[in-house]
Amino acid sequence: MRRFVLGVVVFLGGVFLPVLAQDAGAAISLEKCTLCHGKSEFRKLLIGGAIRDLFVTGDSLKGSVHEKKVCTDCHFDVNEIPHREAPKRVTCTHCHFKGNKEGAPQSDNVLAYFDSAHGKAIAAGNTKAPLCQDCHGNHQVLKVKNPGSTVSRFKVAETCGRCHLEIYAVYKTSIHGVALSKGNADAPSCTGCHGEHRIYAHTDPKSTVYATRVSGQCSKCHGSIAIMSKYGIEAEQVATYNESFHGVASKFGSRTVANCASCHGVHDIRPPDDPLSMVNPKNVPKTCGKCHPGANPNFAVGKIHVDAKKKESGIIYWTATFFKWLTIGTMLALVAHIFLDMYGRTRRLRGER
Amino acid sequence: MSHADLAAGKVIRMSLLFRVQHLLLTVLLTVLAITGFALMYHENSLAQWIIRLEGGVYNRGIVHRIAAVLLMANLVYHVFYMLLSREGRPELRQFFIGRQDIDDFFQSLRYNLGTAKEYPRFGKYGYKEKFQYWGASVGIVLISVTGIMLWAEGFSMRFFPKFILDLALIIHGYQGLLAFAVLFLWHLYNVHLHPSVFPMNPSWITGKVSAEWLRREHPLEYEKLKEEGLL
After folding, report:
1. Staple B60 to which of A26, A50, B54, B207, CB 3.0 to 4.6 Å?
2. At residue A271, what are phi and psi to the nearest 5 degrees?
3. Predicted pLDDT at A25
């Protein structure tokens, strides 16, 4: 009997002691945190008069990708309760680095972020610049594919708009913003053009919206017949632009020449029949006038994106075709004449001899 | 014609002023072709290399326009010279296209095909030279007008609908291609590769041709000079 009791004690000890030891050492249990943070009125008055809610419960992480984590897994600088100083901002790279033992997913996006406009701002000491959690959410981090995620397709614009307020307001009424709000997955939100982690200032040559790269970025969708045919928009606008003076100059590195955004707008892109559109015939003189002083309503006469290789271009197509055949015809006639001339000439010389 | 020339059997075909005009035309057309086609065929890697060589699209445009202005100046000078100068007026008269040229053309065709016995006898300028001369003149005028329209794009856009500019661009480019192709094929054949002049008709440098060449290729001119006692 004694032996049995001893055995049971040893067995139970073997099962529970490591758990107890772990609790005492590494992590502070959720219950301890919620002693204070679990009170719904637990909040802090900030210097500016704003209120910071510090209310957290055991359900705060529920449903998120960090469901199984505890407070101090992220707030690892808290090692006594109550903590004397405000915990520092959470650093996601504590777990999300290559070869981590937690099995936390890791990608080069983290490194890309540090090189981005946001990452550089953080490094320069700008406390308003976003860290991972500012976009991905803090306690409720969800997978991107999850529609509830702050960085999901239909919600990311709103997330960016928390800081980029004015741009978001402009974007929301643009054709892309309206389409997105109607649940159209083809419409680009912020990240569609600016990239996700690799966001740079538009003046940075690395940016996907740098002057010479804008048309390439727009063409990702606007060059696709599959996407554009759904909306009755021509897919060759980018191709015709590339053939135009503007496009060629841009291709060879001119940063002052017009790209798509110069005429169509940036965040405020609207269809041409919208009176607020920059390419509405009424607004064309003003739009062209940005670079071509003295632009008058005559600038709006006629089609801008013209492809001389298409019959729809009318007289331009026919003139190009005429010249093509004139050149080919002249060439053939001349070659024929040259060979005839040589042939005749040999005979003439032979006759003279 | 000096006595030394006569003794050497040489005849002046291009005076110094014509040679200068011709040399300018050669150099400027080459510059215009290189800068122009580089832009027209900008997809091509060789064209891209040329544009880089010229210092980018912006500098390419400046080079192109400088050459264009010089070419137009050359053209204007040539027009005045042909209309007003003592040397130019008779030259221009010899360049008029007449019934004879059309007959000559068909006769040469028939001769080359073997149905005519005689090869046409040309004056100073045969139908080949006349075709080249007027073709180049019309081409340069057309390309100058469209080029100026495109150069003054702000002005043009204010007064013409955009398709006129599209048209100007098309004509400018294709006319350039046509002129270049004709020059390359036709002119190079006539003055370099043609068996009577191979490897080169020297008159564009020395201004002179041999009397023997003139007798064979331009017999009417040869006889005229003989009558006038210049040979």
Report:
1. B54
2. -65, 150
3. 43
Render chain B in DSSP notation, one character per residue: --HHHHHTTEEE-S-HHHHHHHHHHHHHHHHHHHHHHHHHTTTSHHHHHHHHHTTHHHHHHHHHHHHHHHHHHHHHHHHHHHHHSTTHHHHHHHH---HHHHHHHHHHHHHHHTS-SSPPPP-SS-HHHHHHHHHHHHHHHHHHHHHHHHHTHHHHHHHS-HHHHHHHHHHHHHHHHHHHHHIIIIIHIIIIISTTTTT--THHHHSEEEHHHHHHH-HHHHHHHHHTT--
Q: Which residue has the tokens 């709103």?
A: A158
Q: What is the pLDDT of residues A140-196, one digit of tens each?
A: 899 989 999 999 999 999 999 999 999 999 999 999 999 999 999 999 999 999 998
**A322, A327, A340, A349: which to substitute to probe chain B, counting the most B Cβ within 10 Å?**
A327
ipTM comes to 0.86
- Indicate if the pLDDT at residue B152 is higher than 70: yes
Q: Is A232 helix (H, G, I), strand (E, B) or coil?
A: coil
Closest CA to B165 of B177, B144, B150, B154: B150
Contacts of B149 (CB under 8 A, 6+ apart): B156, B160, B164, B165, B168
Window A:304-343, CB contacts with B under 8 Å: 304, 306, 308, 313-316, 319-320, 323-324, 326-327, 330-331, 334-335, 338, 340-343
Q: Which residue in chain A has the smallest CA separation from B131? A: A334
Are the C-beta atoms of B156 and B149 separated by less than 8 Å? yes
Chain segment B47-77, per-residue pLDDT in tens: 999 998 888 888 999 999 999 999 999 999 9
Query: What's residue A20's pLDDT?
Result: 47
Whether the per-residue pLDDT at B21 is higher than 60: the answer is yes
DSSP state of A58: T
pLDDT (mean) for A223-249:
91
CA distance A327 to chain B (A): 5
Q: Which of A275, A276, A295 is nearest to A286 (CA)?
A: A295
Q: CATH assignment of B3-95+119-227?
A: 1.20.950.20
pLDDT in tens, B74-129: 999 999 999 999 999 999 999 999 999 999 999 999 988 888 888 899 999 999 99
Find the residue in A nearest to B168 (Cα): A316
Are residues A303 and B163, on separate chains, in Cβ contact within 8 Å?
yes
List % helix, strand, coil for chain A (3-state, nearest 5): 50, 0, 50
A244 touches chain B (CB under 8 A): no
Return phi, psi of residue A125, to 5°.
Answer: 95, 15
Residues 143-162 of B with CB under 8 A from A: 153-154, 157-162
User: How many CA atoms lie less than 13 Å away from B38 in the CB half-sphere?
Assistant: 26
* Cα-trace Rg, chain B: 21
